[in-house]
Specification:
elongated
Amino acid sequence: MRIPLKSEAGRVGLLVACLTLSAIFLGLAGKEFAAAYFAARLDLPSLQRAVRLSPGNAAYRDQLGRYYWASNDWNRAEQSYLAAVRLNPHRSRYWLDLAATQRLLGETRAQQAALESAISADPRTPSVAWEAANFYLAQGDVERFLQQSRVVLASDASLSGAALELCWRVRPDAEMILRDLLPPTAESHLAFLALLLSKEETPAAAQVWDRLVQINQPIERRHIFVYVQYLVAHKEVEQARKVWQQSARLSNLSAYQASPKNLLINSDFSLDMLNGGFDWVYFKKADVQLALDGTQSHSGHRSLAVSFDRAKIDDAGIQQLVPVQPDTPYVFTAYFKAANIEGAGGPSLTFTDVYDGTSYWQSAELKDADFWKQVGGSFRTGPQTRLLVLRLARIPAGSPIKGKLWVDDLTLAPAGAP
């Protein structure tokens, strides 16, 4: 819309009005610019000047309160924070700063009110919930503590460990934590599982594992290895076997499963060795080299090659744990080649009870074979035997040995299996 200005006075009046408004705008903008400049300097006179130049800016009030707080002048800090929340009650950070100062001043009720205002302003931010949770815990209000812990667990993985530690200390009830606090994510449940393993809460850890299976989200293999190792150490063989089987789809371990006709995993070394769980586990030994050799194999496309360089060893540093049934007959076969094995005796495949050390079977010396040669035998497990370890042992133990050995196509099955 155009406004006609026919008189000279009208044109002058409009010009004066425009200049006045421009001057006001520039003055206000200049004040805000100056306030921002002084606020950035962080010393007390500058922060006070920023507040005077822009008295309606809550951020400058909060910044001044932080200066007083760092100087242990908590009364002035509280006044600055109170001014900040009056100017902007929708910023949870200001309420948290106020609550922290009131805690130091011993103003418990005021602190609680400030925390509740922070929650109202920002109900789903984990830092706010964590601050509130710790306050409620200190006050003995367990239900409100758990309520805020749930927000933390649902939003911030970095705080999950600390939050779960406190929740378990306050209420060591795995079923309640699984039902009421944990979000349906593998990450949160794995954090809870790790906590329970550290406290050797074996039955509760089994509950968490069952929930992980129900959630059906991918799990990194390292978590499976840790849990299986824990279960083996605590003689929970059946649970370890169950975890390994259920990990077939959760951790892409379907190729690393035993079968009724062969209880050994990756027995032809066609897969990479996982160095964990119920696959082959290997350890570094001086003067012993382990390798998967694609130039030598019995029936597949590679074998396990073991090179000895005058090592004084008890075994070659590779083994596999095998869950078995008590009082059951088993049949074992394997194939080997050897080149230039020197030293008294030689390498030998052995089966031993993991827990009581009972030796159930030992092969003949694996030497003097420049072609693939079969070795095998049968044995019956004891009435309490549930877990065997297959090792490539040195017989006699501790004697020097030199040369190279290849092993392939190992099979262990109950007698009479297909």
